[in-house]
Amino acid sequence: MKKAMDSREVGLVMGLIAGRYVFQSEDLHYGFWPDELPVTPDHLKQAQDLHSQLILSNIPDGVESILDVGCGAGGLAKRLIDKGYAVDCVSPSGLLTTEAQKLLGDACTIVQGPFETIELNRTYDLVLFSESFQYIKLTPALQQVMRYLKPGGHLLICDFFRHPREERGPIGGGHPLPAFHAEIEKHPLESVVDQDITKETARNYDLVNDLLQRVGVPIWELIFAYGNANYPRRSKWLQRLFRKRIAKLERKYFQGQRTAETFSHYKSYRLLLYRRTTAAA
Question: Which pTM value belongs to this model?
Answer without folding.
Answer: 0.85
